[in-house]
Amino acid sequence: MIEYLPGNTLIHRLDVRTKMLGFLGILILSFLFQAPQYQLWIVVLTGLLAFWIKIPLRKIGGMMVPLIPIVISIILITGFTFAPERFDRVSSQTILFYALPGNRLGATVGGFLMGTTFLLRLFSLMIASSVLTLTTSMDDFIQFFYKLKVPAEISMMLTTAIRFIPTLDKKRRQILEAQKARGTRFNEKGITGSIRSYLPIMIPMFINSILMANSLSMAMLNRGYGLSRTWTSMKEIAFAPRDFWTISLIALSLTIAIFVRFGLHLGVL
Asked: Reduced to 3 states, what is the DSSP secondary structure of residue 63?
């Protein structure tokens, strides 16, 4: 979910600083409210953004399915570990049942609701971060780090590492298919069996990583990387009227959300 997805939508055309502010706004909104119904609206918002830039549904599904065991664990843990006195509303303090004799380890309504909030918060932040990375090229990220006065070597290292994640994932799938074609089994039982079964994948992965790093270093040297201390860019990022309108909308949304949370005391458990 971090490979750049070319497009001509408004989100693609926004300045990278505007998109970073938007992601920060969604992050603040996610941690501002505790009630799951408010978190659901944030998930709907990020889902509409993902639909706008036409993220394939299979990518979103592939991102969510591995999290199902974690999600169930979070809801169960919060349901049994959040005491009634941690909640402000009487309805959230209600104890549904006790897991142990003697009225011990009670499952509270607020605990399960808080677990659902954590779940929705996780989904909204994952989708929002995917929208950010899929609509922003690595050149824009480098420009963003440059505007933040981050040393060029560090920004190059960070963006290169991020860019190579999809490449390594493609290599992993190719190696996995090749090893399956050779008859390698990946369903051995036990800890040692699992380690042995994945050795045919890890060793070629390490070798491919070293070869790609070596090829990248040779390409950078051939292009004169590090010869000059002055860095230039083919395209300078700049704010456009659409960025100012978007920033104003983000600021207005955050102001309303803060008023609803602290002025009207809504969105709490």
From this structure: helix
Per-residue pLDDT in tens (0 to 9) along the chain, 269 residues:
556 778 888 898 899 899 999 999 999 999 988 888 889 999 999 989 888 888 777 777 777 777 778 878 888 888 888 877 778 787 778 887 777 777 777 788 888 888 888 888 888 888 888 888 888 887 888 888 888 887 777 777 777 777 777 777 788 788 878 877 777 666 666 666 666 667 777 788 888 888 888 888 888 778 777 666 666 666 778 888 999 999 999 999 999 999 998 888 888 88
Structure tokens at 140: 């824009």
CB distance 261 to 267 below 8 Å = yes
Rounded-to-integer distance, Cα 3 and Cα 131, Å: 10
Single out the residue of 48, 268, 233 nearest to residue 141, CA to CA. 233
Return d(Cα 80, Cα 83) in angstroms, integer. 8
Report if pTM > 0.85.
Answer: no
Report yes or no: 109 and 96 within 8 Å, Cβ to Cβ.
yes
Q: Is 183 left (phi over 0), alpha (psi -120 to 50) or beta?
A: left
Rounded Cα gap, residues 16 and 140, in angstroms: 6
End-to-end Cα, the chain, rounded Å: 33
Query: How many Cα atoms sit within 13 Å of 110 on the Cβ side?
Result: 19
Integer Rg of the chain from CA: 24
Judge residue 210's burial from the number of C-beta atoms within 10 Å of its C-beta, 0-12 exposed, 13-18 middle, 19 or more buried.
Answer: exposed
Neighbours of 136 (CB within 10 A): 21
